Fold:
Amino acid sequence: MSTAKTALVTGSTDGLGRAVARALAARGYRLWLHGRNEQRGLALAEEIAAEGGEARFVRANLASLAEVRQLAAALSGQPRLELLINNAGIGPVTPGVSGRELSAEGLELRFTVNYLSGFLLTRLLLPLLEHSAPARIINVASGAQYPLDFDNLMLDRAYSGMRAYAQSKLAQILCTVDLAEQLRGRGITVNCLHPATYMDTAMVRDMGVAPVNSIASGEAAVVHLACAGALAQTTGEFFNGLERATAHPQAYDQAARRRLAEVSERLAGLSTDGRA
Structure:
């Protein structure tokens, strides 16, 4: 019986996610690859197989919570999942688009793709992760963090792409701290990180910003958080690259975390006990 661990990396057909997936495959992980582009996803799976690894691709658009549920369903029947990396995301700018954008469910797009889809996917996969314990959940957040205004969470007022992006990334961090507390003693750690500043990715180039860090630097930070033995018991932390860091103060506000969890469960169509 194989002892290889299994990992799901969302947004693994390009940029940081692709690099992380390849690095994990080189370490012997069985990979579930995710993305919107089936051609790139299948090509990456073939590359990994050609190098002696094992990978399967599943397509889903995280701008649709229905497709998030389909993604979770594709994995829920699997025997193991020791690592979930919520990496998929969109930046502050969509080329050729100005103004506020909406998800398939009519929610603010960046809040949905960068935060709510990962929130829902994680909740749906928790039984499998707990069955596979010890397991790790990693949320790829950012150093860009804007406090959540619960009276304007969908940014119907005062919209900007950067505010939408930074709000969604702070939401990831609030969720990380909250879920880590809930899962203490259950064999699952939950951490998040800012992998590196302005990596050489399509997201950064779409912003019109000159990259200042390589994708390799971000990959190293994510893989360290995913695999380092010294971090096996570390949970509820925010990392800046390889180092522990302090996030925006709202991340440590218990009332804000509780309110975000309640809103997220309602928007994601979960019951109060987290079930679909």
